[in-house]
Amino acid sequence: VNAQLWLACAGSMCTVPPVGAAVYYFPQGHAEQASAAVDLPAAAAMRLPPFVACRVVAVRFMAEPLTDEVFAKIRLVPLRPGEPVADVGDAAAGGGGDDKQQHKPASFAKTLTQSDANNGGGFSVPRFCAETIFPELDYRAEPPVQSVYARDVHGVEWTFRHIYRGTPRRHLLTTGWSNFVNKKKLLAGDSIVFLRGENGRVHVGLRRAKRAFCVGGGGDEGAASLSGW
Amino acid sequence: VNAQLWLACAGSMCTVPPVGAAVYYFPQGHAEQASAAVDLPAAAAMRLPPFVACRVVAVRFMAEPLTDEVFAKIRLVPLRPGEPVADVGDAAAGGGGDDKQQHKPASFAKTLTQSDANNGGGFSVPRFCAETIFPELDYRAEPPVQSVYARDVHGVEWTFRHIYRGTPRRHLLTTGWSNFVNKKKLLAGDSIVFLRGENGRVHVGLRRAKRAFCVGGGGDEGAASLSGW
DNA sequence: TTGTCGGCCGATCGCCGACAA
DNA sequence: TTGTCGGCGATCGGCCGACAA
């Protein structure tokens, strides 16, 4: 999975420790977030420490195949008794400030409105997104139109018709958008992330809304997913 | 699952031994039909007998939730050494002839044509099926029309518009048929079974064609299913 | 600047009788 | 008797500008 798109989908509230960082592992918190209920025997729970000092030895950025939701697998090794609690390796350099980190690419997130998700297959593109993320439009044409090709977290390419029209003028995605909404099963309230990669390539990611629960309407099969950041 | 619909879906080529019947179990044949490849160690295979005399102690009629394909779970217990190889209980009564069996209900199976499966959402009902399985039509009306309600193996009810029209006149299912084909993912070559239950209630079952393999066209998810009798 | 609405046009769905096998 | 076809009317998807928040 493209690391930059992963970070944009996860959002700025989410930080992932680098390999070598010293962290604390909270078994209680981990158990509470597990999808299956973890029921530790009372005796074991009594002996369980509230947190464990660990070192990050591996990080893998991943995404759910069906829902596109992003998550990370972080491998931890407990610090040995007496081992100093300090970052090592790459993590030691940027102590707090992440200015040494690679350049952050331009990205834009928008929460889908009713019109974006339900109505006649169109998506209102905020001006900022159209001007900084999408390829430059030729405004001399009447109306200005182009095709935008965007890859999702799995590397699958989607095509959208990007047009600048209406009075007053505004940017819209028309042809291709409806298909994307249906295939990804997007609803109003979900968010979409556009990102301009290094070589100008456009990427598209999702951030699904937290819902009360997956209220299956029709008899269609669908994977319920409870996620949150 | 309704036992009569189950039998109609399985077809007349399929017989299921009753509880108490003495049967032979063929491990080799069972292994060859298993969905996962069964690879017995050579040593074990050498010692395995070609067949085992057993008694049927339980039979369960079942159907796949997604594909509606029917199958049976038959519980076998090996005969003890010296135990006579003969049917006991219910199975002993009808030695060969099944005339003691309960009355067989009227049923009809038809293989779907291209027109049934692909074209404008209609199904050509053979006259015999319309006259013996469906509720009696009021031919005084112009045109004669009624709604037919049919339950599938899971007990789900489907509604079809049954009309007698055209020149020459013929029986057709129109409204509701297209939806059924799509939901059940039926294709030309698959068969449909209509059955008239005891109280006149109509039941509908499926018999899917053996295909070369499930050639997934679109990006849609679908459960591949290899079945045969 | 952009969310929602009604209009409208074209594509598709699905019901129909005509024919022929 | 019934499988396939072309016709055609109703419905729906989806692109559009108008307007207002």
From TrEMBL, chains A, B:
It is found in: Nucleus. This is Auxin response factor. It comes from Dichanthelium oligosanthes. Auxin response factors (ARFs) are transcriptional factors that bind specifically to the DNA sequence 5'-TGTCTC-3' found in the auxin-responsive promoter elements (AuxREs). Homodimers and heterodimers. The chain holds residues 51 to 279 of 707 of the full protein. It comes from the Eukaryota. Residues 108-210 form the TF-B3 domain. Belongs to the ARF family.
